[in-house]
């Protein structure tokens, strides 16, 4: 019963996460670092943001297999169906928010901040469930495990790398910077802070929901 509740919380968190990504993207000030490469590609090719997110997630899973080798555990395979579901949720949320097209810069900033809060809540819920990691974080943890690096610095390096690669791809395909803007930096700074703040404020939730230990520290 506890496992079932954890997966329900995770699935809700995954949808909330997708809603946050969609809100940030709809703000038209860039998107979150982990979504920056799929977003830039979606602006230049026929596939949607969700579809490119699935492909990018599968690439990260393959890279984890290469990095971890014999330490790649069977439970890592769960990232595959989660990736497809995450991509579907993103496209669903983008469709549901089709009416969101802010023109004034102030409204764009507002949607960006709301998206960061929503995404932070989604990240917290996924960490609270503590059943499956999304490929982005799992990739970072694989690097930390393989080369004994510090998680926080590795996560920052990963986010920066994703953003830089997305910017380069934008110039290659569109001859201009598109899809990577100030909102990408804001999301990188705010989302993890919001998730950790919620985690500290709601430490009792793990005990209340699952009768176990507090949720692990949110590391996004």
From TrEMBL:
Keywords tagged on the record: Membrane, Transmembrane, Transmembrane helix
InterPro entries per UniProt: YczE/YyaS-like
A Pfam family that the UniProt record links to this protein: DUF6198
Keyword Transmembrane helix: yes
Coiled coil location: none
Transmembrane domains' residue ranges: 7-25, 45-68, 80-100, 112-135, 156-174, 180-198
Protein's name in the database: DUF6198 family protein
Natural source organism: Pseudoflavonifractor intestinihominis
């Amino acid at each position: 019963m506890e496992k079932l509740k954890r997966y329900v919380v995770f699935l809700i968190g995954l949808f909330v996460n997708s809603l946050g990504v969609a809100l940030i993207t709809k703000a038209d000030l860039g998107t979150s670092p982990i979504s920056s490469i799929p977003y830039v590609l979606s602006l230049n090719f026929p596939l949607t943001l969700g579809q490119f997110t699935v492909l990018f997630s599968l690439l990260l899973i393959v890279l984890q297999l290469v990095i971890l080798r014999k330490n790649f555990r069977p439970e890592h395979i769960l990232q595959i169906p989660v990736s497809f579901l995450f991509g579907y949720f993103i496209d669903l949320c983008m469709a549901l928010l089709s009416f969101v097209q802010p023109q004034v810069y102030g409204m764009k900033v507002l949607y960006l901040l709301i998206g960061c809060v929503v995404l932070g809540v989604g990240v917290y819920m996924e960490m609270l469930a503590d059943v499956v990691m999304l490929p982005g974080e799992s990739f970072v943890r694989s690097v930390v495990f393989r080369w004994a690096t510090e998680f926080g610095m590795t996560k920052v390096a990963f986010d920066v790398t994703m953003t830089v690669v997305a910017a380069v791809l934008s110039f290659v395909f569109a001859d201009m910077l598109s899809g990577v803007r100030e909102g990408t930096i804001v999301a990188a700074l705010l989302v993890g802070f919001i998730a950790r703040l919620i985690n500290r404020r709601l430490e009792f939730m793990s005990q209340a929901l699952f009768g176990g230990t507090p949720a692990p520290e949110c590391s996004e």
